[in-house]
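Appendix B, record 7
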Amino acid sequence: MLENRKKILLVDDDRMVLQLFSHALTNEGFQCFPADSVKEAILILANEIPDIILSDYLMPDQDGFDFRKYVLLDKRLKNIPFVFLTSYTDRKLMQQGLDMQAVDYIDKITPVPLVISKLNNILHTISKEHEKSIYEIRAAAEALNLRSVPAEPPRLDGYFLNFLYKSFEDYPGGDFIDFITIDDKYTFIILGDVMGKKWGAWFFSFNFLSYIRSAIRLCVFDENFSTSSILHKINKVILMDPVLSDVLSTLTLLMLEHETGELHYSGAGDLPLVLFSANENELVAVQSAGLLLGVMQDGLYDEKTVTLNKGDQLLVVSDGMIEFSRKDGGKKSDYDLFFSQMKSYLGHENSFNLIKDVTFSAERSKELIDDCSLIFLQKN
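C-alpha cells (predicted):
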C-alpha cells in the first residue's frame, strides 16, 4: 500500500537523471518526489517529510551544499538521512559533503540496482539503530523501575478513568502521567509536560514526578487536600533545586472526591480542561490561571471546583494534542480547533474509543511533532 512505501526526495537539475532515477526508484517500491532545483525541493518539504533525501552536488542558483545547510537548520528535517548524488569524484567535494553530516555519496555512474541497494541498506541500518536506542533506554528505565506513564489507570467505583499516550518518534519524552488514590476516597490525577525533547525531557520528568508525589503525600498527611496549595509547594521546591530551576514544565493537578463527584483543579501553564456536561449537552473549557512550574516564586495558582454528574466527561490533554506542522516548517497550536473536534466525540457511550481511533490512529501518529497525552474521566 502507498502509505507503507518509503518516501524519497530526489533533487537534480539534470532532467534525464531525474527521470531515470525517479522511474527506477518508483519501480523498486519507493514513493519518489522529484525536484529539479533546491527551490522546488523546499516547496516539496513544506508538505512532505521523506524518509531519505538524495541530492545532486552541483546545481545552478543554489547547490546541494546550500540545500544541505537549509535542511540542517530545520528541526523537522535535520535528522532525515541525506545522501549526495554526484558525477564528480573530487575528494574535497566528497569530504565537504561528509563533513555536513551526509550519510553517504553515490556516483551517478553507479548501476541503478546498486543505488537502490545502497539506499535500502542506509534506511535499514538507521531503522535498526533507532530500534536499538529505544530498546536500550527502555531497558534501563525498567531496570531502575522508572516510569513516566503508569502501566494502567486505577479502577474507581462509579467512574471510568483511562489515558492515551504516544511519544514523539517512539522515544521517551517529556510528558508524564500519574494517578494517586488515597483511602479509596480521593484520587489525584496528574498530567505534566517538561519543556524539551526526547531523553533530556524524559529524564527531568522523573524529578518533577518525585516532587509532585512527595508534595501530595505530605499535604494528605497534614489533611490539606487543596490542589493550589500542593502546586505552590511543588513550585517552591523546584525553584530551590539547582538542577530543575532552569527547567520549565506544565502541570495539571486534579483531585477527585469519589463520593461527591467534586473535582478540584489547579494548573500550571497547562491547557484548559474540556468538560462535557450531560445535563446541558454542551462542552465547556475550564481554564486555570497558574504559571509554568519554575517561572517565579508566586505561581499565581488558583483552584477551581467542578461537580461531575452522571454522564459527564472530562478531558485533560498535553499540548502535543493540539499541535500540527505548518507549511513553512514550523508548528502551530490550535486549541480551539481541537475543542471543536471534540464536540463530535464526547457525549457518547464509547467516547473514549472514538477519540482513541481518531486522534491516536496510525495515520495521526505519523504526523506527530511532539509527545501526545490525554486523560479521560467519566462519571457513570
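Remarks on this record: Residues 112-143 form the longest helix (32 residues). Residues 147-379 form a domain with the Phosphatase 2c; domain 1 fold (CATH 3.60.40.10).
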